Protein 1
Amino acid sequence: MQMPHVVNKYRSEIDSELRSLLQPYRLPLYDMMRYHLGWIDEQGMASADSSGKALRPTLCLMAAEALGQDYQKALPVAASVELIHNFSLIHDDIQDDDAERRHRRTVWKIWGKPQAINAGSAMRVLANVALARAKERGLSLEKCEAGQMILDEATLKLIEGQYLDIQYEHRFDISIDDYLTMIRGKTAALISCSLELGALTGTDDPGTLKMFNRLGESLGIAFQIRDDILGIWGDVKNTGKPKGSDIKRKKKTLPIVHALNNGPVAVRDAIIGIFQKDAIGEKDLELVFDILNEADSYRLAQKTVRDYCENSVRLVEALGIKVQYKNNFEQIAKFLSYRDH
Ligand code: GRG
């Protein structure tokens, strides 16, 4: 499925904001970041675009613009959320031992885990530097401080969610509510924060900020469940992740949690038996696919994505923003429901 048109609208300005932020930093430490962001190859040469979708900064700028703010004023804020996102991906790849991201070798695979941790941690600090530039673009000191607090709280929630995600790998008593708590943290918190920060640049009204935050939570949940589906049934050509990769990593994705909770005892025991093995082989993988098919877990997960997208569309209606901005948010919600990458 094609990315919504609105994503292209801000793309080059988000990119320029990030490039200019990194420009003064010369140590090779920063080249690891430039590589991860898709600007250079392993040898340090300019490379063809292999960056991410820039979904979070796009949502941030969309929120600013929908509230009548000049979106360019919100670019530093948008850059800060994209840096938090990418810091979390660099660390996530280390934690999960993932060798590839966005169809290229991961930072740790090239430079080793100790230096990749440094690149991720420094990127997390650069997010603060990015946000501080909002003051130079005319955002009040008060709003800059409020924004910093929103970003820090979301980052903490993201790390809490990641903590639960890793903890759940060794547990089988995960309810759907436990699963939702985990993804609210690891994925939805930063998406909520992106919308709330963008909105903060355009309004002082706490009620409006809350509404954008809730919209982000709903979109973020839909986004993660679709990600779970792609991590099991997705095509490596589109996702960059081999089919079944989340199963091999013993992740408690929604389809697995669903089968564990709703299937007969024999199904539950079969999954537990496979997940307790040191390594999940190809035969085990096929068995888990059979179990998930039997439990109709794909359909249930996709229905949940649709429910959260429909909820997101209702939340967008309630914002009372101009129709052109409303349509853009609706397009994003649709993209999240059916995306294949
Ligand atoms: C401080 C040790 C330490 C960890 C930080 C690693 C971490 C906390 C959090 C990771 C959270 C995480 C990886 C959530 C997954 C969210 C997700 C689905 C990411 C993929 O997002 P896309 O598809 O990525 O927007 P692109 O490639 O488009 O940027």
Protein 2
Amino acid sequence: MTTTSPTAAGSGANATQAFRAARQSSGGEVTSPERVSDVVQAVLSGVHEAIRAKKVTYPEFQAAKQWLIDLGEGGEWPLFLDVFVEHVVEEVAAETQHGTKGSILGPYYLPDQPKLPSVSTLPMRSDEKGKPLVFTGQVRDTDGNPVAGAELDLWQADDEGYYSGFAPHLPEGNLRGVVVSDGHGRFEVTTIQPAPYRIPTDGPTGGLIEAAGWHPWRPAHLHLIVRAPGHRNITTQLYFQGGRWVDDDVAQATKPELVLDPRPGDDGKLRARYDFVLEPA
Ligand code: MBD
Ligand code: FE
């Protein structure tokens, strides 16, 4: 289980830096004034309505302002938005998506990780803690044909719930990698079972959760982006059957189709299989 660590404080700020860096390489899109007005008006109306319905007071309004200032200064906008808002953006995107179900990207994706062969072990420390997990499967298209050379861009927390790149005590690239499927679309990745993730309790997002009396946990999960030329990317997460918080994710990002059921293999390692289905781009 996750223990308190001095590294938790910096993680939200790092997510802001990672987000800026990713935006720089993706380039901005222009949104029409009509669209900006339409969406922002709807958001503001929702806020206005909440203030009326709940009879929000001046002290509460000023406390909210202070919290929003702290959220930005603490670098936690990505963390807060991905935990409490992204699942609905994903829900809307899913309306036009076929094949494997998607889930939220979250704040801890880092691009440009090393490419690994179809049978690989994720980069990890020599004494990496956690139950070994062998994750196998096949990538197919919506017609059932295997997709050779598909990329499984994988990232996950370690056995204490920390992500490399967002926790200074972890080596760069730990438990991250891009596994490339073989000629039959198959892959076999050896890793460790991640721990559940706890929102850092020492920042504004954790402060809100505490003040509201909610719990700060996400169930243990593997993150993936699956991509192949001519196919639409799938950004998703895989969870673990029977795992703590699978039915009570603070980020509301679980789906019944995305739950692995690992079983011990002959070698004692847990084995889980998942096949991905990509639709045409
Ligand atoms: C995570 O690990 C995560 O996946 C999401 C969506 C939000 C916060 C932390
Ligand atoms: Fe995560």
